[in-house]
Each structure stands twice: as structure tokens, then as C-alpha cells.
Amino acid sequence: PVDDRFGRDAVRRTSWISVLAGASAGISYGAHGLWPWHRTGQAYGPMHYGLPLDWREALALDSGEDLARLGRFISHLPWWDIAPAPGLAADPPGAILATATAGPGRILAYVQGNAQVTLPRLGPDARAEWHDPLPGATHAATLAPGSQPPRVVAPFRAGDAVLVLHGV
Asked: Which of the ends of the chain has fewer CB neighbours closer than 10 A, N or C?
């Protein structure tokens, strides 16, 4: 049978885009199989997308941890003030999937791939950092050598990252 479930990357991407789009009331993640406590071999009503996973398998999906890291990251920000913001420029175009403000003077940008992001005019105390949503680690962003206007480059794998600009 064909498995049409959304993969880990799609769940993480959709969740970050939703939060940065202003889902300040929160989002939910239902690893189908967990919420109905489904057991392998158990019948399940009419489905358009296949039987749910066994609840024990659904509980162990990596996407649950990805969303827990997203929650921890956002909880350290004024999440109630997150609002969509005009996009930043990136190379390649379209690499930035969502941008938002998170309180005064802070911009978040969810970036796909190894993009270079052009920085807006920054204040004297401004700083930029990259958040890697897979391990949940944050790294200082460094300017691309000789870039004019100033640009930062995602310093890790060619997946997704969150650029956090403070003091803009």
C-alpha cells in the first residue's frame, strides 16, 4: 500500500511557516495513530489516507521532537507579538519561506537551503544568529566575506534554518 503520510521535513516546514504567519494561539501536531490509541490490526473507520500507525510507532516519530524544539524556541520570545513581516531578500530567490517580527527590534526568517540572506539596515547593537531546528542549536551568524550589501550565509546543512535578527 502507498504511504501518503507527511514526512518529518514537511511537518517541520509547515509548523515553522504557520507559527511565523501568526498562529499565536498555537498549532497542533497529531501523529495519526496516537490520538485514537490505534493498535496494529485494529479496524479503523473509512479513511482516505490509509490506516493510522500503531500508537507506539506514532509516539516515536521524530516530528514530535521537532515540534517540541519549535515550542521551546518560541517560548523564549514574545510569541503573542509574532506577526508576519515583509520578506528579506535572499539568494536564491524564494529561499525564505516566512518572515515575522517577534516583538520590537526582532525579525525571524525561516529559510530553506543554503541561502545567503541580505540584511536590512542594522542598528549599532544589532546581532544576527542562526537557529538550526533539527538539534535546536543556535549559532552566531557571520557576514559573507566582501558582501555588499551585507549578507549572512546559513552555516549548516542544506535543510532549513531560522535567521534571528536582533536590534533591527
From this structure: N
**What span, in angstroms and rounded, lies between the C-alpha atoms of 156 and 91?**
16
Which three cell numbers mark 45?
473507520
User: Where does the chain show beta strands of DSSP type E?
Assistant: 82-84, 90-91, 96-102, 106-112, 116-118, 127-132, 137-140, 151-153, 160-166
**Residue 30 and residue 74: Cα distance in Å, rounded?**
19
The radius of gyration computed from the CA coordinates of the chain, to the nearest angstrom, equals: 18
End-to-end CA distance of the chain: 51
Q: Which residues have CB under 8 Å from 146's CB, separation 6+? A: none
Span 46-75, average pLDDT: 87
The single-letter code of the amino acid at 15 is S
| pLDDT bracket for residue 110 (50, 70, 90) | very high
Q: Cβ(164)–Cβ(152) under 8 Å?
A: no
Q: Give bridge partners of residue 143 from the DSSP assignment.
A: 152
CB 164 within 8 A of CB 119: no
pTM recorded for the entire structure:
0.86
